[in-house]
Write a structure and sequence with these properties.
single chain, alpha+beta, Heat Shock Protein 90, Aminopeptidase, 3 domains, 7-stranded mixed beta sheet, 5-stranded antiparallel beta sheet, 19 strands, globular
């Protein structure tokens, strides 16, 4: 199952006086699940004792910390987990014959934990490394069967169908315009209706933040209004922090009941024609690879495919209205549109990537030249790069602005750190205007990076070659859906150079 059944959590201070409140919480859950009064009292006694013993063992007197108590219905009955980040456990729960031989503090704790078996059917201790430790307590529910659990917990989650529009609604009037501050609340509701609480740009769930970003100019929102006042969709332009001459079309969302009516294309055109600064080099958008609808909309408004970043979308993200199950982490397709074309473009790349990059730029309306002349380009005194980590995506981006004598070793060290922190996807942005990129690319590929594509204006100093690294992220290329011939060519080149 993708979600836990009847799962809830409570956080309390590491003070024994809160044990009674925690046991009250757990017994209320036990009653909901179906335990009788005698078992409920037994659960309360066991949890009270467990919390008191755990606090005394884990923390110094007066130390301020918290305990997390969770209750979950499982096939056997009730599972209660008490977690903290205090003193780790020993190797295992001691047997009665071992308790007398333990140090006094451990013996006291071990004896008290062993006594829990008078109240609960299963007791186990687990050290969790950086996440602390936990006691797992299980009480069997004798009056229910496995069939009861399945009936209660294994039904598919219900998601209501989008409401049907009344006859003629498709023809009713609509308007695309700038968002008013008073409409920010409805825009946040629109994001929820489309994504639940899984959308990566969390400011979209906070109307006051969305208003503030618009007032500051960092984000410029437009909406499509159906009838006199109903918000049907939203999209915004957000300036790319690495290069103010490039803007991202972001937070594009249409309510499920208004999809397939061309509203996203209308929002995009309005942003390009009425909102974007005419001095911009270009605009880009991220579209997903688990369906091609948004990709085709991008093509309709003049955006062209230029990169595919593999396995970037977390499996937790919800695409409401799309019932197909995700077999792997979806990938992201970058689409770009020039608003002012450069007259000439000289790029520095290894021979292995020149043909595909030339094809990408020609599809964007540019005929680049390639130069292998890096003999006069000396290394800088030091490397200049920065790392951006997006924890919600388990993703990191390394933006490399300058090559120093130890650049490869430094990137290798940072990559190792990121992998140790369980970052799953790392993208490396290299400046294709820098002659050294022609030779340094191959050095980074020896570390396990491989081609993802390009992004015009992706760095402050020039166009970016995007390399990608996957930290134990399985990719089945057959599951990646792309709509254009260009995207298929990019995907084929990525697959051919994927060391995994």
């Amino acid at each position: 199952m993708s979600i836990k059944c009847h799962f809830s959590q409570l956080i309390i201070p590491s003070d024994p006086v809160y044990a009674a409140a925690a046991s009250k919480y757990a017994t209320e859950i036990a009653g909901i699940i179906g335990f009788d009064s005698q078992d409920i009292q037994t659960i309360a006694s066991g949890l009270n004792q467990a919390i008191a013993a755990l606090i005394e063992y884990s923390f110094e007197p007066g130390e301020q910390a918290t305990l997390q108590i969770s209750c979950e219905r499982i096939p056997e009955g009730l599972k209660v987990v008490v977690k903290d980040k205090g003193l780790p456990f020993g190797e295992s729960l001691p047997e009665p014959s071992q308790i007398a031989t333990l140090p006094s503090s451990a013996a006291t704790f071990g004896a008290r934990i062993f006594q829990l078996k008078k109240y609960l059917d299963e007791v186990s201790l687990h050290n969790l490394g950086h996440d602390g430790k936990e006691i797992v307590l299980i009480k069997y529910l004798a009056s229910k069967t496995l069939a009861d659990y399945r009936a209660e917990c294994e039904l598919d989650p219900y998601e209501p169908s989008p409401p049907e529009l009344a006859a003629g609604n498709f023809e009713q009037k609509f308007m695309v315009r700038r968002m008013k501050a008073s409409e920010a609340v409805e825009v946040s509701k629109t994001v929820y209706k489309a994504y639940g609480y899984t959308y990566a740009r969390d400011y979209m769930y906070f109307p006051e933040k969305l208003i503030a970003l618009n007032e500051s100019g960092q984000v410029q929102s437009v909406v499509v209004v159906v009838g006199d006042h109903e918000i049907a969709g939203h999209c915004a332009v957000q300036y790319w922090e690495e290069n103010p001459r490039v803007a991202e079309l972001a937070a594009g969302v249409v309510k499920p009941e208004y999809r397939s009516r061309g509203y996203f294309a209308l929002l995009t055109e309005y942003l390009v024609n009425e909102v974007c600064d005419k001095a911009l080099l270009g605009i880009f958008v991220h579209t997903v690879s688990n369906h091609t609808i948004s990709q085709k909309v991008g093509h309709q408004v003049g955006l062209h495919d230029c990169a595919i970043r593999l396995g970037l979308v977390p499996p937790s993200i919800s695409f409401k209205g799309f019932s197909e199950a995700l077999r792997q982490k979806p990938s992201i397709l970058i689409q770009f549109r020039y608003l002012s074309h450069p007259s000439t473009l000289t790029l520095h790349l290894p021979d292995s990537h020149q043909a595909i990059v030339a094809a990408i730029y020609e599809n964007l309306g540019i005929a680049p030249e390639f130069s292998g002349n890096y003999a006069n380009r000396k290394l800088d005194k030091r490397s200049v790069f920065k790392i951006q980590v997006v924890a919600s995506l388990n993703f990191a981006r390394i933006l490399l602005d300058s090559y120093g004598p130890n650049t490869v070793a430094e990137i290798k060290g940072k990559l190792k750190e990121l992998c140790y922190k369980k970052i799953e996807v790392v993208n490396l942005y290299l400046n294709m205007f820098d002659p050294l990129t022609a030779v340094m690319t191959e050095e980074f590929e020896k570390l396990g990076f491989f081609f993802a594509g390009v992004m015009p204006g992706g760095l402050a100093g020039g166009d970016a070659l995007i390399l990608q690294y996957l930290n134990n992220v399985p990719i089945d290329y057959k599951e990646i859906k792309v709509a254009s011939d260009m995207a298929h060519r990019i995907l084929g080149h990525i697959k051919a150079h994927d060391p995994n």
